[in-house]
Amino acid sequence: MTNKTMQANKLSPKKFLAPVGQLGKALGRHFPRTHLIAAGVAALALVGIGAMSGDKSEPRRHALPIKLAQAPAVAGDEITNAAEAEATPIDAPPATELRSVEQTVRSGDTLSTLFDRAGQPIETMYQVLGSSKEAKKLARLNIGETLVFHVDQEDRLQKLVRQHNRLESTEFNRKGDDTFEMSRHQLDPDSQLAYREAVIENSLFVSGIEAGLTNGMLMEIADIFGSDIDFALDIRKGDRFTVLFEENFLDGEKIGNGPIMAVSFTNRGETFEAVRYTDTAGDSNYYTPEGKSMRKAFIRTPLDIGRISSHFNPRRLHPVFKTVRPHRGTDYAAPRGTPIYATGDGRVLKAGYSKANGNYVFLQHGERYVTRYLHLTKRKVKTGQRVKQRQVIGTVGSTGYATGPHLHYEFLVDGVHRNPATIVRKLPKAKSISSKEMDRFKAHVAPALAQLARYSGETLLAQNEPTE
């Protein structure tokens, strides 16, 4: 082959660049200028590589890496490298952080007031209220309750929390533009058994408070033994009681007391015991260690505190008219406003006012029994209403023919007045543990009764130890 032939077979730069230029014009109509520049650089590099590979005289000893310059991103660029997209991690957008705004219900506050203080529009309040039946209860908030508004960066409400107490809360979470979803939350506290005891020197309540019990627990003790002990008449100095109850803790901090688990009360030398039991139906009540119900058809007194100022007496001298007139009930002197309880389940036969009786409430219990409550300051029930045992039906007062604040209480059997202080002992008790459930009852109450007996025994032993 001659040199001329060899030269003829070689491409001249003009011949090589001519079609490239034509191609560039064609591509320029479809691609941005920056992409074309990058493509041109890549093409020239490839040509150089091809020329090097075509020369056999010098073997390639090192493959030098050739790094192509990347074209800068251009708005509207639709060409992407799939491999680079997979290899390059894409950060997820940060979660929206919520800001908490806490509002405590004060006297005179309304729900709209709280929303306004939290910077939320009235439209959002109506969206929450319309979300569920539970949400409508927000319109009846109690002083001291807390509402926590959780809002986003645009001050838009995302979650509303109603904190009922340390353990219970209700949440309303945004679901969409104008709806909220309700959920309830209940924390389980840590519970442990505690023991208290007291010997009565002055009164049940004074001695109980000194022993570290609350008013609520003392009223519960009076309720438990209300069918066996008249706490207005029977209590004597030297009576004693022991109680085993639950204390509740949250994060190591005491937040309150749970129910009484077992209790004993010695009155006038006679000891009564009661233990709490939850049956297979989920109902909790107090029973004797033998499984008999502590709850009778009627409790002995309609008051927790007070003293008998006048007994049942068919020939009593009337304090106002100074004539001998039958006193067909028992009078309990107590401070004005003291709560009065229904002594048994029943229906309000009549609730009204008369010149002699003042404000009064009559209750019908089944077919045979009627109880009457006279001289009330306020009536808490209406005629025809159903009531439960120990439901508050009024408060002590001195309306009608009365010389001072007291409750006149009557008990009728088949239309005949009977002595309220003695008739209750003769009436039937409530339902006791069935034979089918007796084994379960004994297994559940045995630990509490054993612990109550151990504590009581240790106390008696300590009291009887000789002193130097």
UniProtKB/TrEMBL annotation:
Domain Opacity-associated protein A LysM-like: 102-183
InterPro entries named among the record's database cross-references: Cell_wall_metabolism_enzyme (IPR050570), Csd3_N2 (IPR045834), Dup_hybrid_motif (IPR011055), LysM_Opacity-associatedA (IPR007340), M23ase_b-sheet_dom (IPR016047)
Keyword RNA-binding: no
KW Transmembrane helix (keyword) present: yes
Domain M23ase beta-sheet core, residue spans: 326-420
Domain Csd3-like second N-terminal: from-to ranges: 199-314
Name used for this protein in its record: Peptidoglycan DD-metalloendopeptidase family protein
One Pfam entry name: Csd3_N2
